[in-house]
## 1
Amino acid sequence: MNKIGWSILVISLILSITQAKAQDIVYERGETIYYELDQDAAPVVRTALSMFEGDLDSVLDASLKKSDKQGDRKLIIHTLKSNETKDSIASRHEAFRIEAKEGNLRITGSDANGTAYGIMELSRMLGVSPWVWWADSTPKRREQWVIKTDFLTEQAPAVLYRGIFINDEDWGFNPWSWKNYEPSDREGEVGPKTYRAVFELMLRLRANILWPAMHEVTIPFYFVEGNREMADLYGITIGTSHCEPLQRSTPVEWPLAGKGDYDYVNNSKNVCQFWEERVKEVAGSNNYFTIGMRGVHDGKMQGAKTIEEQRAVLERVFKDQRALIGKYAHSDAASVPQVFIPYKEVLDIYRSGLEVPEDVTLMWCDDNYGYMRSQPNELEQARKGGNGLYYHISYWGRPHDYLWLASTSPALIRTELERAYNHQVQQIWIFNVGDIKPAEYLLEYCLDLAWDKEILHNRDSNVHLKSWLTREFGETTACKLVPLWNEYYALSYQRRPEFLGNTRTEERSEPIYNIVKDLPWSDREVTERLKSCEKLEKEIQQLSLQVDEPGRAHWFQLVEYPMLSFCAMNRKMLGAQLARHGKAAWRVSTVAFDEILNLTERYNSMLNGKWRYMMDCRPRELSVFMPVDTTQISLPLPEPSEKKWKISPSDGEFSNSAYMVKELGYSREALALQEGDAFSATLPRSSEALTVTLAFVPTHPAGNERLEVKVDIEGEKPCYISYETYGRSEEWKNNVLRNQALRSITLPPSSKERKISIQALTAAVILDELIIRAM
């Protein structure tokens, strides 16, 4: 053979060897997939592996088998040891790497939870939704599963502890569990079978901490045998809410196990003993201890009246609680995760100079309606214990509950959480998710924001929404659903479905707030909103006709029930408002009421009653959920002037560092202004005086400072406008019910157009729109 021939042969051999090594990893239907696993693998790793095997069976009809033999296409699962410090993920909390290497698929975790998340990532790659059980999202079956030869992903959380609070569970999660899913002779018992389902969802969503259900209707988490052990099996840390220090569900446990009054001024010995029992019991598990003290439930502490007295009591409480942690959990109490939550009245105590130990996490809270009440200052940001947040996507309380449908704007959630993250709130995020259902999307979005900085900093929330809908329903349907969900969130932003009766809750001195009455909208505005709902309803109904029977329960839970119930609630309440004015038949409202009941019964009876008792369309039996009073009569508001203009951020010019937030606000493009940024636009000429209303997204300042802008209008003196609110003021209540903070300026007539400039003098200013009316 000549030299040319030998060269061709050698090249061919090299190419064939290279191609053999570079082949994709392919797993065929029905095959046995071999894996290697550390002998000392943690329970959470073995749990995740078992879940993944179930997913393989449902998608590929494949199984797993452990093998130490050499070969390719194996899963090699490994958790880094303490001496493997040079690995790129070694120093990162709960990180993992998945890599196709030398014909094998390697899953490496920086710790046990990281390894478990890596295994669960394989399920995602396989096409299994985290909602495979909780929303009956059946994965598509495959003939083969292909992993590209160069596949590599490394992931680590943006926030160290990411979790949920199951709360206000009286009308959903609690009765569903003990009456249906895990029947019990003990009323209100939520046991390990239920929490296993919760923990499996959390593991799939990369959540690592739970605040368990704690209302008086629920037997406390630690009172039920097997709950704590189940959490350990899934790598879940247990914490407790702002009124449950040291893992005790005070509202239920104190009446049963406490002695005397829950009062640390006059009964500290018995209260401390109450805490000690639980710390001793749970010392061997994963805990994030809440320290401090409030009342028995969501109220002020007993025994101390003034802020100074309360501050002194809390500092004594801190000392005694940390002594218990040091005695039972770890001799170095500072090494045990602890959090202090300055929620509601406790924030005032903290701001008065309360000394919180440096290693304790400070948890900052929203105002219960999605707006962060405060942010840590520079000194607080540098704390050893770090900072966390507690955020609501479901709420019971003043000025009105929203416990039924999940309707918080994703754009608002992302904006507020990014702002918190940028203030170094990165240690722990807890989301109040009510009963979990029907908050599936918002729950996952919140946890994805806590996991992935790229998602957190992407100011177009539609990217995530489309990705989620594509995973659940396919790309074609997702493209049709994105604008429909945006319409749902936009209409809810203007008025949540629970707020449509113009009622309030817990306004004990004003019984008039319990009576359904007209919203401050003209008949024209009501009619326009009803038309939007009608259009939304028809489009959802058309899409529903295209859903095959196997996917109908999945579709109904995630799309049809919330959308159609929302539209029916609008018809019920706004149809009644028009009927009170003689502009519509009462039947519009009464039929809509029946539709909501029918939709809810369908939810609870589908899948042979799997979700029976989970969905309640009238939590707390509030008047807004009841049949309307068909005997009422009222006068409509005068129709607004025809001479009305709106200026949105895209209609003007703004500073380079300012940015529009897609889908936020009435304008659906609210403008986030940094301190010093300005927005300018042109006002219309008018032969009449004008009222210019500045509408802001009702955020709160980072600390005690103001929210202030400077307004310059051609021909007028500059004016300074502030719009911050304090506590539960009447203005704050109106702001969160309508999601706008309003300030107005009156201008004289002008035959010329005038330029208006609005400059942010403080941080956290978000301008929604300008509303101009001729007087």
## 2
Amino acid sequence: MKTIKLNFLLVIMALGVFTFTSCEDEFTEEDFLDKQAELAAAQQGFDLEKLILQYELMRENDSLMRVFQAELANVIRDENTEALRQAGLLSSYTLTIEDQGGVPIDSVNVSVGGSNPAARVDVVTSGGTVVINDIVIGASPITITAPGFVGVSYILDLGSIGYYDDFFVIGERVYPLGRRETSRITLLSANGGSGTFATVNGSASIETDLTNTATEIPQNVTIVAYLNGTSYSGGGVSGLFNSSVTMSDFRFIGEGIGSAVVDNTTGRFSMQLPATEGGISYTLMVPDVTADQTIVIDTRDDVLLAAPELATVPARYGPVNAASFSPAISIAGAKAVFPAPTGAGNGANLTFTVVPRDLNIGFTIDGNAGTTPNSGNVEFDIISDGGTVQISPTAAVATATTPTTPIALQTSIIGDLDLTVAGGVGYTIGEDYDITIDVLSGATVLQTVTVTETAVDDGTGNGVLPTIDETGGNILTNGSDNLNAFGVTGYQVTVVEVAPAVAPTTAATITVTCDCRVDAIQTTTTGVGYSAAITGITFAGGGTGAALPVVDVVATGFEYTIAIDNTGITVPYTILPAVNWYNTTVASFPDASATDTDVISYTEAGTGLSGNLDDLLGINGTGGLALTRTVTNLRTGFSYAAPVLEIVEPMAMMASADVDINSDGTIGGLFNEDGGMGYTGVFGVTIMPTLATSPGTGAAVQLFDFTTQGTREVQWSTNWTVTDKGSGYLEELNNSAFGAYSGPTSVYAISGEVFELTVKYGSGMRLQNVNQ
């Protein structure tokens, strides 16, 4: 009645709601609230008369009409949702169940599983018809049994809710239709004798113990046969069923029919399969199983065990990963046991202290801008070689600490002297005059340059020296005035008439300039007691208009004293550690650490002795490091940064080897030998069974060729000889003959035939990370 009323109401709305126009708004707010309440009550009860009444009243008021339309839309939406839900439940499935002669079977039992708890099964005994009402759209398991017949099970797949199949829409309303599907099922007689069935016998085995050659029996395994293929619609296999809808996973059920339980003791199984003279193809489903596996392992979680051990690990067996299996790792039945090394020691240290150094430097500056000369184990960087100077500029070294004796430096200049002569009265006309220039360093004459000029008449009978300007030129043609001297402080000029010596009334004005540049720097007083790096060279002076060089210091090298510090020792030494330190050498500016040199050499200041520190190191009575002889002053070589110490402590690693076992149970010797580390004496090896439960006895091997190193470590060369081959040892503790799963996947059942099948689960896939 509800559906009819709502349909009628929709008709009313189609004729009225969208046809009539609104009238005057004559309702009060109270009227509005009353009508809204009445509408809600009418919706709850689906009272058609009241709804129509409300419609007639509200269509005269715009506000109330909008409320009415909104409320009615909610009703339609809720009804549509319910209709779609009903469409998924209203399918009907009719089964016709017959025997092989086409005679309906009346006494049948049909059950529906899955999400169908409310499905109603109506069995019509007349004609073998079964109707399943309200079955959900989707996949549902169906089971059919009948006395005297082989039961069947399958998955009925009704697909999904579809337009026109399960519902249709008129206007805004959804109407459920209810689908109807049918199937015809032929049940095979359970009492038909061998002509109705094929017999499948077989055996199943599994390898749950890889330490023996026997096979084990899989436990609690059921092998199931179902009709070949994945799904059917239309005609089924050998006419056993015909359906208007998809059916899948079609199986026969019943004790010993279509399935077989593997005997937990013997591994045998047997089942009967419904068969025809033409044959029926079945797919065999052998389940995966998980079982514990006994195996000898030597690694766990990628970590090598101290010794092989017998372990029980879970493994997965079966056809799902038929091509994959965990191989049995080869582990010999005998092992070589070596003693643990006794070498030890930890915590010693060396300390390095700067040795105050002398400083004596000297290098060429002119033409070397951009280079990094090294002088006296000091690395310099010539930023600029400067320009013109008149005299030698001073140079001073800067450092962070005060030395005992500061270094004294001087610079040399190189270039040409330029001479300017002007005026003068009373010179003897036609006579030669020598102009002498002395290059001075304080009061010391470093170099003398002489220029000869002839007096001339100035046009009034007065003798004068010629007015000349040789600036930029060379005052002597033979080049002997080329200046190259350290510590130039000035120039002194004298003029002497060659012969006779007559002084002029007024001397000529003579000017000397130097077209020179700084050539080099040198030490005049060696610096003593420098304990910190030089930070720079400062230039000053150089005369009027001097352009001075710019020279930086990259790094200063120092020697360091070496002292042993045993205060941090935590484990006394029985073997000497490997001691190295890194001296920093300067390879290229500006990287003062361009090359780190690994050195262990020393010098002994004042003696001229040098050598390898390893030759001096020993172990004292308390396990500390000590020098084997008295050293007066142990030093490193020059380093441009504090040495970086590296001490490699003694390492203890047990010697190892594998045992080669012959097929007759004797040993052939050792292989994969490793001499180990940290031994302090000659040692031997014992050959014994890998596991306490493994057989074998009597084998013996003698080790030889041991050498004692300077560190006190005794090293084995890995040479050996067999002194007794022994007997009874196993070549392998794990049986490697087992492999992947193998077994049948299908069987073609012909009436009366007997099949023998073999299922081998193999060695499976281990579920723990062992022996990988």
## 3
Amino acid sequence: MKNRLFRTLFLLWIPCILSAQTGTLVHIPVREYTAGETLTFQCLFSGNISHVDGVVVFIRPAGNRAYHQYPMKYNGIEWTVTIPGTALSGGDMEYFILAELSHGGVISTPDDNPFDYPLTIRDMETGKASVPEHTTSPEEGGIPAEYIILAPEPGGTIESGDFVVAVSLFNMPDIDLSSIRLELNDTDYSSYLEKSPDIITLTLPPGTLEPGMYTATLYAQNHYGTRFSPETWTFTLISAQESMQRIDRSLSGQVGTEFRWEDVDGEPNNLLRFTGRITGSIQGITLGLSGLWVSNESRRYQPRNSFNAYARTSYTDLELGTFYPELSRLTLYGNRVNGAMIRLKLNFLNLTYLRGELLREVLNRAELDSSSHTWTISSFTYARDIQVIQPEIRFGSFLNWKMTLMHARDDTASLDPALNIEDYNPETDSYIFQGNSPVDNLVFDNSITLSLDNQRLVWSHNVALSMTNRNIRGGVHDSITIGDEIISISDKLPDFMSPDRLSRFFIINENTNLPIPAEVSEDLTEFRLQPNKIMDYPSLAYWTTLRLNYYNNLVTWTFKHIAPEFSSLAYPGLQTDIHLSEIGDRIRLFRNRLIVTLRYSSQYDNLLGQQKEYVTNTNSISAAMSVMPGQELPTVSMSFRYYLRENDLNTAADTLSELLTSAATDQRIRNENLYQMFTLTQPLKTGGIPTDLTINYIRTLRKDKIPNRPPGYISPDYSLNLWSASALTRWSSTLIQTLSWSLMDNKISRTSDFTYQTFVGKIEKSLWENKLFGAFEIKWTHASGDVAFDQYQVSPELRIKIFENDLFLNLHINKLNQSGTTGTSTRFYTKYTYQF
């Protein structure tokens, strides 16, 4: 991104520079070199040497987009630089020399468009160019992207056996995963990508990439078909033998601090944050250290501070501190863990073991009844421990099998009143808990992934069975729950499987549901297991996905069955008691100039046919189309989504009071939602000045059907219409202006109507190759109707980048006038980072 911006500035300024320069670069081109040997460049400046701020050699493997930069040194006569042989990977190289002048201009050799037409150096050993096959054409432009490059680090060196590309999508929630494409040296390797909403990774079969310098380029679009700006970075791949022969003394890292001062009507809300990250490698071992400290850390909440350390080799990974593992989508999948994880990597056999803490103990409220000397403890969280073991077998790149065993248990001793309540007297006081009960959870998951035809066909399937004790506070008992009955198991298990002996692994009592279907005798003394009744397992979950990428169609199918008793304490957000089937297709036509997305989803609950007040059946259909005919032509995006939920509800309310006090959670028989969106972007030029004009319309409707609505009941039906228009004008490569307007009309039932209008103006200016950047934004919101107010916001910001220092300053002032009352809030935010 930085190189492309510099290139744009250079091309815009070069006519003026050539006409105003007071000297030229004198350079005898280098024509040949030998791979592995050092390469020296020399040049002279024909003018006054005091006019030169610096001279840089830009060099790259032939066919790459990105250049490596090597500053030249002045020895009193000429400018020279020697490039080490380890940086020259073999094959033809391309280069040019660029000099920065003190008055702000630049000169180069060659002097005509050097970025696109550099000088060529032939490899004497190969005698031919090592230009990789070009499988795609570059895609320029697009909206700014906020990828976080995790590996390989830009400009870093990595051993071929440890090669993996990892990019975080944390800051890009609207990205379309199916549109992501990754190229290495202009060769598309997207079929090897593994994608999730949080991260994408690329691993290749051994021997796919030869050692050398590589340029990675990432392309993607959002859900509306709008392209993100391509992300490009370079790295060097070395062989295992070369890695063992040299000690990589490179060390990189970043330290930073953030400060927020905020005042909301006289109430302070300040925050101070320190971050740090150091990475390096030595003799094939990659080491890393990172940490986060915030001023609002408190024992009343889950931890905000974090610390992480890791060591990675070709055969072992070790991680300590705070991390977010993704081991299995039905057990532990991205939840925060404080602990340790080790992974053995033996090619076809891998083994992962994790042990740590999911939650720490929190006690927010304890009240004493002095008459009975009883403490009532509420608003609390038990410490929750977790252990995971996961063997994995790989058969090449096409078949992968994992077995995951996860055990999570709340620590009942973590909330001991004698340790957590200062005034508690264990000799005279007693206590009771009011709130969630401590639980014990065991999950066994099997997953298999099959990849065929260069990953054009990928099938993944998970089957998991869980066992949960909903309250372990009473300890171990010789009974278990089957359906609605509690059955004694004291004489039905061998001695080595007694509840007491099993308590180390899992606590069994009457709050434990048997995970296997069983038939109970009438006198409740016997039960017979029925393992063949697969659909009756109360805690069974299976999840299947199929992806087909053929003939410009990306077809995805998802089938999910999560039984009502299934539970994973490491994945608390997993929806249970659902049966979901979803199919979608992304169709790419006319060389990706027309993209059509179709999706249908059906879901229902009450899988075991239990006695419930109502069950739901949900269907949704969505379609989207994006047309991108080419540069200077309009881009059009349209989307449609319809959602229908039907409740099998047999209750009716005669009065408003009965409606509000009914035991039914949702009184709606039918709920419909409709969403429509249209966006048009037209590039314009007025007097040679480019402007992107964007017009957007969004319509949302919600309609509920409630039986026998009592008099005075307000309908929850809702409609929204949003119109917006914006114009982004590039007055120059360093000056951008944005003007926008939006109008949102809201109607709730037929009794409430209010409208928002927002006007925004923003101007951005950068200087000295983005070393200094400033912006100023002003925003006015006017609301009328049942909700009326005026809001004024002003936000200036400044960013300074000098060498490896990056300083960002932002001030935000907000003033709100509503019903004759004025409120003001002020926020100042600054962030400083230093990279080394």
